[in-house]
Amino acid sequence: MGGTAIEIAGAGPAGLAAAITLAGAGRQVIVHEAQGAVGYRFKRDLQGLENWTTRQDALVALQKQGLTIGFKRLPCRAGTVFDAWGKGYCIRSHEPLFYMVERGPGPDTLDTALLHQARELGVEVRFNSRVQHVQGPAIFATGPKAADAIAVGYHFDTRMPDGFWAICDDDLAPRGYAYLLVMGGKGTVKSCMFTGFKQEARYVERTVEAFQRLVGLEMIDPRPHGGVGNFRVPSTARSGTHAVVGEQAGFQDTLWGFGMRAAMTSGVLAAYSLLEGSDYDRKWRQELGELMATAAVNRALYSLLGNRGYRWLLRHQENRSDARELLHRYYRPSRVKRLLVPLARRRFESQRKDASCNHVDCSCVWCRHGRELHA
């Protein structure tokens, strides 16, 4: 690469993680962001930074990757999940199950913290800059390209105490879950659904009514919001000669949609592949491949359960003392899970398909190749 500036398309967590890693190694980096602010599509969405896929705490892992943890966060160790009949099940863990964080352009968000770190290292971030093609060294991090799942609901102010609640009920969130997150007087309530997108308004209305009935949901100045998730285990996370990271590559948890850690990790790995001249596909397969395949199997199995199966699962976890430990076991690769990968492929097929590019030395930033992993 010599002294050539490395261009990154997209200023989400994956793109900024790549920029931070490259700039920390002394490279000149230019990040292009199509919107006018970092985290534009989230608009103060509350989300979870999962803490169960590794034994190591998520915040420690971020620090070891050289990424900031200077964002507002709420460690979540206890919450309540309801079944379709309104029975609540306590979810507890000794260590945080996840860290609740705020997304978007606000002062305390994860996105803003990463932006500040990148700029302090000399990264040039160009907002309202949509690049179509690049010819030099580059990383693509432009976010999801299709809707394999959607999360629709409201952001709001509230006097409710901090906490998290969820409901597993196909009448509220088909093959997914409804959730309510509250931190510091702000709240997010959404239906995360994996099918039935055309009836999203009905599911959101049912979700709001259910949380009002079960936990006394209070929304002050509610503002509608929705987002999409794109899940896939790619056969390659490259577009021509360029690395593709984050949700553009499909790096997101297929079971629950907790994707920030995988996105940032993929950005760091892509940056090191440029710095070292090493094989990016080999790097992400070693670090993320089995985890993503296991999550895809978990998603396929979960989609078969239905409301009675969700209830059985909640009863099963309630008899365990540590939900984080239980989830860690669910996400741990195993011989059985590897054998079930073909089932997962048949049961869950990504909507991301585009036959418009042959991907031979491709330089198209917006390319959607849709090639899936074959077992």
How would you describe this protein?
It contains ten helices and 16 strands. With 375 residues, it is of the alpha/beta class. It has two domains: 6-146 and 231-347, FAD/NAD(P)-binding domain (3-Layer(bba) Sandwich), CATH 3.50.50; 149-229, no CATH class. The strands form three sheets. It has a seven-stranded mixed β-sheet with strand order 6-5-11-12-13-10-14, sandwiched between helices. Helix 1 packs parallel to helix 3 (110-120) and helix 5 packs antiparallel against helix 6. It is globular, with a radius of gyration of 20 Å. 48% of the residues are buried.
Task: Walk me through the topology.
Elements: E1 6-9, H1 13-24, E2 29-33, E3 46-50, H2 58-64, E4 73-76, E5 78-82, E6 88-92, E7 98-102, H3 110-120, E8 124-127, E9 138-140, E10 149-157, E11 163-167, E12 177-183, E13 186-193, H4 200-215, E14 220-229, E15 238-239, E16 242-244, H5 260-276, H6 280-302, H7 306-318, H8 323-330, H9 335-339, H10 341-347
Parallel strand pairs: 1-2, 1-9, 2-8, 5-11, 9-16
Antiparallel strand pairs: 3-7, 4-7, 5-6, 10-13, 10-14, 11-12, 12-13, 15-16
Helix pairs in contact: 1-3, 1-5, 5-6, 6-10
Q: How many distinct domains?
A: 2
Instruction: Categorize the overall geometry.
Output: globular
Structural class label: alpha/beta
The biggest sheet, with number of strands, parallel, antiparallel or mixed sense and barrel status, is: 7 strands, mixed
As for the CATH topology of the largest domain, it is FAD/NAD(P)-binding domain
Poorly predicted runs are 353-375
- Give the spatial strand order of the biggest sheet: 6-5-11-12-13-10-14
Oligomer: single chain
Average pLDDT, rounded to a whole number, is: 89
| Overall number of strands | 16
- The value of Rg in angstroms is 20 Å
Distance between the termini: 35 Å
Question: What series of H and E elements makes up the topology?
Answer: EHEEHEEEEHEEEEEEHEEEHHHHHH
For this structure, what is the CATH homologous superfamily of the largest domain?
FAD/NAD(P)-binding domain
Q: How much beta, percentage-wise?
A: 15-25%
Per DSSP, the total helix count is: 10
Task: Give the second-level CATH assignment, the architecture of the largest domain.
Answer: 3-Layer(bba) Sandwich
CATH class of the largest domain: Alpha Beta
Q: Estimate percent helicity.
A: 25-40%
